Structure formats: structure tokens, C-alpha cells
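User: We ran a pulldown and think these components assemble together. Before we commit to crystallization trials, I'd like a predicted model of the whole complex to look at. Sequences follow.
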Amino acid sequence: MSESIYVGVDLGGTAIKVGICNENGQLLHTYEGPTETDKGVDVVVSNIEKYVRHIVEQSPYEWDQLKGVGAGVAGFTNVREGVIVLAPNIGFRDVPIRAILEERIGKPVKIDNDANVAALGEAWAGAGKGIENCVCYTLGTGVGGGIIINGKIYQGFSGMAGEIGHMSVVPDLEAIQCGCGKMGCLETVSSATGIIRMAKDAVERGDRTSLALEDQIAAKEVFDAAKAGDEVALRIVNRAAFYLGKSMAAVAAVLNPELFIVGGGVSKAGDFLFEEMRRVYAKLAPEPLQQGVSIAPALLGNDAGIVGAAGLLLRS
Amino acid sequence: MSESIYVGVDLGGTAIKVGICNENGQLLHTYEGPTETDKGVDVVVSNIEKYVRHIVEQSPYEWDQLKGVGAGVAGFTNVREGVIVLAPNIGFRDVPIRAILEERIGKPVKIDNDANVAALGEAWAGAGKGIENCVCYTLGTGVGGGIIINGKIYQGFSGMAGEIGHMSVVPDLEAIQCGCGKMGCLETVSSATGIIRMAKDAVERGDRTSLALEDQIAAKEVFDAAKAGDEVALRIVNRAAFYLGKSMAAVAAVLNPELFIVGGGVSKAGDFLFEEMRRVYAKLAPEPLQQGVSIAPALLGNDAGIVGAAGLLLRS
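Assistant: Here's a predicted model for the assembly, 632 residues in total across the polymer chains.
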């Protein structure tokens, strides 16, 4: 029997990335083209179809070997109905993408949000390979999460499982309001946005830090300053790590996962981020919830989204 | 075809309760006899067998209709191996109860800890009937938890999922050490033990409260005083409820369950306990994690353990 292949689509605001995976989650070919968000829904959807057909045609595989297409998108998705409810950066609102693509491509299609597909990608073929139960943190502009139970994405009652960035972990006295409207969410301190805010606050109140010399502060400047020994920057990164570790101890008491996978831009801060997360986790999680449990960096980088999207066909 | 029945066993320190359930979780007959813990493991196991045979013989059902026996026990269990690892109140350590009972009774046997079986009982035939994803809190001497995913008990990596009582929720400045060795666990404030401790502390430091007149303070005295308008008692119950609500908001961000079920002795404190939990949950959980989600009292009372144990055969 000829090998089955799966195409994953990472639907972003500026580019659509597509990739072919085999049934072990190995990423074999990739292709990238512009999203053309400004030209509207129809053009974006046509582009997805075009790129999917293109990558299969350019590959050594036959169209018949393609068993399905999965797509991940930043935004709210209704997984059961296959609808992109709201994806501001591509201008989609209530687009029944699954039905449209299934008709155009003639193959089964599944969708999910970017945090969930990244989690599935890592669980399937990255840091979580071979592990059935893990929790994935994606530290970017926000803090995204994905819960993998028995090798599959867990959606919860209304598709909101894994909204780990909105765990309230910061004590009232230090808490600020999150974009979701609530106070003290993990995302307010452990995302790139949170780190930049803490750095700007430090500069504004006159803390002695090399960050005061920067014209613009991005998360990377804070990490670089921390690595260079700047104490203010180090304190900020440690604070981000502290609440990540604290949230992991809470997640462990609920779900007892074997592995926490941490990816996204902020996870590149360096070893000290992981060391602090592990220290806090060891401090707060009861002993039996530590045995055999690890906290590890994501392995697939930006490919996690494509791989996980391809995996939706097999693992959802 | 004749109806199938399942026997559930609630293995306690002083009494063994057994009950017959049909396949809808309806509890049809119950029987209770002494555990005789002091006579050792063999006698306790013989008693289980005796009571199981007795209740089926006394019922209108034939032995052939019995499809299996489930047992719940307070302590550490290895569900996969069917071993009671440590159950101090019945004096069991490393007892391969499943293998022993299967040989003696000649039917499939499953075991789990008391918090998990109570959760399954409520999910199967109590407050969670018809709901696939819920989280159950049992507020007794400690705070037990059970996670129900797709109608079944979720065990996690090492069988420790649902250890909700050991979520660290109390801020450092107010935290005390938990029996597990960690600081600020939910159990330190929201269990009967925690409530009694807070009451004693209040009396000792001279707070003006009717509790000062009690010879011995049990949780019930604190609830009664709170209902009668005692402000100190009310503050204590509200504090227990506050951290329950806070932990629920955290659980929701991870698992997005449809329902939180709250049972156990402390849940009898009264409506104000539930009102405060709901208020705090509404304050801390993002809006989409509130829609359609409820916090409800357990319905089965002490029978939850027997029903859930019987349910282990169908739902694990």
C-alpha cells in the first residue's frame, strides 16, 4: 500500500504556510505564499487551495495519497462545525472554512486554533513524541496553551480548554488587568507583551538598567540584558518564569501531565527561564506530582503549527 | 436479555457499604457491615466477599446478572495494577485487592480512590447526569477531587489527576503549610480541617465570636454560627469559599468543564458557600469560560461512593 500523506496549513495574517507530513508526523515538504488578506475571504480561501494543490503536485506523492488537510488559525474557531468564528489578523468572521475547503479540495478538512495545533504538533512529533498526556505553553504576544490527553487535543465543554494564559495567578496587590477583562492572568506577566510592559515600567520609574538606553524595548532586548547580567532585566524574566512555574504546579494538581512543553518566542529567553520555572514548580507541586514529570523546550519552532495542523486528521 | 447489575463497594475504616446498581447508575439495594480492620487484611477481604455475595443473594437478581464489582477506598491506589498502595484507616499496604477479589468472587473487579469514585458516582447518576465533562470537589477532612472527561475518570500520567486540594491558591503572606509539605494548598483553607483551624485561630487571638463559647469546635459549629450571623464565622466560611471559587477559575482555564460539583460535609455549610464560590468564579474566570458553566451541589450524599464504585466497571 502506498504511504498516506497529510497536508497542514498554518493560516497567518501575511503568509500561508503549507507542509506535507507522513503518518508519523515527519515534515517532508513545505511551501509558503502570501495570504493576501486585503483581497478578502474568497481570495484567501483560493490561495489555501492553490498552495495545497501546488505542494502535492511538486512532491513525489500522488493526489490519491493525500488523506486530508488540517488548518490552524490565530483566533476563535468552532472545531465541531469547522467554522472560523473570529480571526482578526486575516479578517475572517464566521467563515465555514471546513465546508468550503472540503468542497474545493475534495478531501476531509479539520481546523483548530493556533495554540492547539502547535501543541498537537509538539506532542505528535516534537518534544512530546511518544508521550500521551502533556500540556503545551506557547509564549508569544499572549500565552497560548494546548492540552493533550491520550495523544489528542482536548477541547473541553465549549472548546476553551487550554486557555492557560487566563489562569489568574498574580496576587491581587500586584495584579493588572488582562485583555480578557480579568485581573492577574498569567498572560499579563509571562507573554512578550507582559515582559515589555514590565521593562517599560522599570525604565519609567527610574530603575538602574541598561534597558533605559534602548529606543524601543522588545522582549529580545530584555532577554539580552538579562543574559548580560542586568539585574532589572533578570528580575523581569524571573518574574515571568515564576508565574509560569506556579501555573504549572496548578495544572499538575488538576491533570497530572507527564510533560510540560514550552515554546514560542519568549521560550528563547534562555536556560535561566527554564531553571526558574523548574525551581518554582518543584517548590509548589507536591512530591508525587514531580516524579517523572518534566518541563522541556519545544523542538519544532515555527513548524509546530504546520505539523500539528496535519496531525488534526489523525489526532482529533 | 436479563438486566445487568454492578456491585459497588465503599471500603471504609469502620464499615463496608455495598450496593447494587443497574447500568443507569440507579442504586437498587444497599447493605452495610463492619470492616473489622483490627482483625487484619484477610478478614477485611473475606468481609468484602461475604457482603457482596449477601447483597446479591438477598436481591431479586441472579448471580449471573452481576457483571462486576468496583471498590473505592480512602488512600493511594494503583488503578492499573488493582493494588491498594496505602490506606491507613483500614491498615492496608500494597494489597493486590483486584486479583484477590477476582479470584474469590469470580467477576471482574476494579478499584479507585474515594475521591475519584465519588466524582464518578455524581457524574454518572447524580448532579452530573448526562454531562460528559465535569470536575467534582469533595470537601471533607481534606479536599478531594475527581476529573471526569468524556464520562470517565481521568487518571493522568501517574494516577494523580484531580489532586485539586493541592493546588497552591493562598498567597504567600497568608499561606500555611499543608500536610503534603507544600505551602498554601487549597486544602489548608477549604477543608473541614482548615475551617476548624481558622476558627480556633480566631478564638485564640480574641476575635469577638460566639465560637469562643464552644468547648470543641467542629466545622458544623462554624457553619451554624455563620448562619446565625456571627461575622467571624461568616468570614471564615467566605474565605473557604473564596479559594474554592479561585481554584475553579484556574481549573476552568485548563479544562473548561461544563459543571463543577461540590460535595462532602463542608458543602452542607449552606447557600452562602455556593453564592460566594459563584461570585468569585464570575470575578476571576474570563467570560467565555462562564457561559453555560455551573457550580452545583452534589446530589447523592454518602451514596456517591457506592454508585461510583459500581460505575468503575462501565466508566473507566
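The first helix of chain A runs from residue 41 to 58. That may be worth checking against your pulldown data before setting up trials.

User: Thanks, that helps.
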